[in-house]
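Collaboration report, partner site 2.

Our partner group contributed sequences for two proteins of shared interest, and the home lab folded both. The records are reproduced in the order in which they were received, starting with the first partner submission.
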Amino acid sequence: MNRLLLFILTIGYTIVLNGQEKSREELYYNKVKQFYTLLNTDNVTLKETYNLFGEYTLEIEEYLFFEECLSSECESEFSERIQNPSKYSSVFFENIKKIRNVFTDNNQLSLDSIIFNSKLYDEGLPSSIAIDVKFSEELIVYFYLNKYADERVYITNIYLSNGASFYNEILKKAEGVEATYLYRFGVINDPDGYTNVRDGKSSGSPIVAKFMSDEIFQFTPNNYSNWWHVRNADRSIEGFMHKSRITPFGNLPDTKKKELIQR
C-alpha cells in the first residue's frame, strides 16, 4: 500500500457537500481562520496539517522530514508518523511557523474581524476560489481553496504580498522546484481603449505591446510596487503595467464575465 493511501485511510475525512450544516462560503472562511489558529499553536500535528492542505501535505511533509532527519532510521520513523498522524507534529507546519511574519501583522485582537471581512475573490473557475486577507495596503495574503462542491475544503496555495507562493520559501532548498507566482485574470481599465505594456517598472520604460479593451490577460499582484507583471493568454507577451490600469476579472459583474468568456 502506498504512503498516500495509507495516510488518507489512517486519517479519514468526511466530504462536506454544499448546503450541509454550513454553507460552502462559511467553510472557506473557517479554513483560513483555522490556518491562523494553528499558526499560534505550539504543537501542530500531521493530521491537523492534512486537514488544512489535503493530500499535498504528505509529499511536502516527506521531503522536509528527510531533509532534516539525521537518524539512521529515517524510513521507519517516517512510516511511524504516517500511521500515527495525531501523535506527531508536522515538519511542514513547523517550517510555516518559521516565516509566520509574512502571513500576519500579529494584531491578534482584530484577526477574526480581518478574516471574516476579507474579500471572497471568484473568477468563475470551477476548481478554485480565493480569500484575500488584507492587514494593510502592503500586507495582503491570498488564500486559494478548492471549490469542487463534492470535495472537502482545503487550502491549495497561499500567495504572499509580492505575489509569490509561500511554497517558494518552504521548498527553497529543493532541487528542480521552480518558483511559482499568483496569476489572476484581468482586463484593462483605460478610457483610451488600450494600455501600454512596458519592459520595466516605470512609465519611461520601452513599450513592448498594447493590451486592448476587453482583452483578457494575466497579472501578478505585488503590493510592494505600483507596477505589476502581466502576460497575454499564450504568454508570448510579458511586461509590466501600472496597477491602476488593471481591473481584476473577479471584480467584474457576472454578466460581463460571461460576455468576455464567450467571445
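Second partner submission, folded after the first:
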Amino acid sequence: MLKHARTAGTVAALGAVLVLSGCGSDGDAKGADGGRGAGGAPTPGAAQSPGGGGGLANGNWVAKTAGGTFVLSVSNGQASLIGSYTCAGKVTGDGAPKLELRCSAGKTERANGTVAQEDGGKTLKVTWGGGLVDTFRQVPEGAASGGLPSGMPSNLPSGFPSELPSGFPSVLPSGMPSALPARPAS
C-alpha cells in the first residue's frame, strides 16, 4: 500500500512540475538569435540556457533508477529533482553543467552532480558526487500532459471565510456505546 501511495505521490509531483515548468523544453527553437528577439529581449517560447549553467536548456527529464523514478526539471538556471525525495537548487558550471541541490530528509547522494548532455540534449547523464550515475531522458514536448486534465476553470469561487470556529471540546465524553443498536427487522 505504501508503494502505491509513494507512486501516486511521485506521479502527482511530476504533474505539478510539468504544469509549473511550462510542460517541456523548446529544444532547438532558439535559432540564430540565441532565443532573443529585437533589442535582446527573450523571444516568447524560446528555450533559454540558464546563465552560468554551461548551456543546459530549460526542460524536464525523467530517469528510472534503482531508487525509483526521478524527474529533473530545469528552468532559468534553477533545478529541481523529484522522486522518493525532493531536491532544489541551481545549475552552475563554466564547462559542463553542474547541479548544486539541497535535498529533503538529509539526503546527499544526489545533491551535487555533473551533467553530460547526449543525443543533442535529449539525454542527460548525471554523475552524482555520491557515486550514483543517472540517465535522464527528456520528456517530449506535447507529451508532458500525460493524460492530465486541461482546460481547468480559472474562475474559481472566492470569499471563503479565513477563520474557522474555535472553542470545540478537545476531550470526547467517556462511557459512550461502541456500537449502535441493531435495527429491528421489518
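Feedback sent to the partner group on the second submission included the following. DSSP finds one helix and eight strands in the chain. The helical segments are 2-20.
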